[in-house]
Amino acid sequence: MNDCTIFTKPNAVLSSHAPIVGIDEVGRGTLFGNMTVGAVILPNELSGRFDEIDLTNTKISLLNDSKKLSEKRREQLFDIITDLALDYAIVDVPSTIIDQINIYQATMLGMKIAIETIIIKNNLNEKNTTILIDGNQLPSMDGSLGEHFHQIYAMIKGDATHSSIACASILAKVHRDRLMIQHAKSYPKYLLDKHKGYLTAKHKAAILEYGILPEHRRSFSPIRELYNQGFINSNYWHS
């Protein structure tokens, strides 16, 4: 699965002796494009449950679940987090892989790659590293370095509960949104910069009028049914 794209912090120096890695994903339910996983290691004094730490006088005082923040606020926090984080990883899992192995397996794959990337890059020790993943499911780390890390926990609504997961959510969200804005320049009639690939009325109308694009997820309904009927935008498909 080497089609995944990975971005990490250049020249990151991990000074934490007991790092907490926060992980979240975005784009799981969209019809178009990649699903993105973010992983973040914050300085220890900034990492914790929102009800247990005080971020008031810090650079991330406005931190919250990315879904509750405006696009402008997320953009501001993205730059702050990438600068402030001891390290981060952003993993893009393309629609081709999603269609091959299904969205659940693709999500677990993206999380596994993010974890492995952080572990290898920082030479993390399984005895003192904690990995927190948003949601209620954990990726299988069998056959990888991560299988030795036993402090891996799923946290329901983690992006609204823990600062490290919230930061991972923002990095993943802003990164993916920027990709959708780039796609919108290539496919202006589909308004991808507005709905970011989710099934909205305008997105559905564009699909029905102009056809399916190569980046649409052909394993998702209604894309699957339309694709099987040959309903594609032939201007963008190449044999």
Automatic annotation (TrEMBL):
Its main location: cytoplasm. It holds the Pfam family RNase_HII. Manganese or magnesium. Binds 1 divalent metal ion per monomer in the absence of substrate. May bind a second metal ion after substrate binding. Its EC number is 3.1.26.4. The keyword Cytoplasm applies. A divalent metal cation binds at D24, E25, D134. It is found in: Cytoplasm. Endonuclease that specifically degrades the RNA of RNA-DNA hybrids. Belongs to the RNase HII family. This is Ribonuclease HII. The lineage of its organism: Bacteria, Pseudomonadati, Pseudomonadota, Gammaproteobacteria, Moraxellales.
